[in-house]
Amino acid sequence: MIDWKGVSVDNSRVVKLAAYVGKGDLFNAAIRRRTGSQMSHCEIIIDGLWYSASLRDRGVRRKYIDPKPGEWEYQTLPWAEAEKIIQWFDKNEEVKYGLGDIVCQLFRINIDAPGEVCSTACAASLDFQNAFKYNPKTLWKACRAKTLAWEAARS
Question: How far apart are CA 83 and CA 101, in angstroms?
């Protein structure tokens, strides 16, 4: 199979969740304060390509990022299916950034507003139900729990 850039792909590719723990800006600080976490943004990495949604990029996108050392934490998601994630981003690449989702998350309003933010895009692409309920911290924890369950089922 060939991906969107003409690269040959298979199902054995490593999928990682990356969480931004760098200082960032006031926006990052507000998210960290509200969630009680060092994590203020998240991305999925497949074959060096970073998948997420960002205000800076105006919505759902994929791009190559050169991460600064010490600003990101990573966890491998052995249960995640690279093809399904890529298909989700293919289908949603024109979706705008979800400012309403940020407001809902900051004020703990339990609705799915239009658009996507980093954690909702990542959660949806990983096939988590009610993706709008996830922030970077809760997605990190949910992925860790799913990885532990996946590993336990194989031992």
Answer: 26
Tokens representing 148 are 């532990």
Closest by alpha carbon to 118, among 51, 67, 63, 72?
A: 51
Residues contacting 7, CB < 8 A, separation 6+:
47
- Mean predicted confidence (pLDDT) in 6-15: 65
Q: How far is residue 67's CA from residue 116's CA, in Å, rounded to a whole number?
A: 22
pTM of the model: 0.88
CB 18 within 8 A of CB 50: yes
- 67-87 pLDDT, tens digit each: 999 999 999 999 999 999 999
Alpha-carbon distances, residue 103 vs 23, 45, 92 (angstroms): 21, 26, 21
Residue 49 CB partners (closer than 8 Å, separation 6+): 5, 62, 63, 64
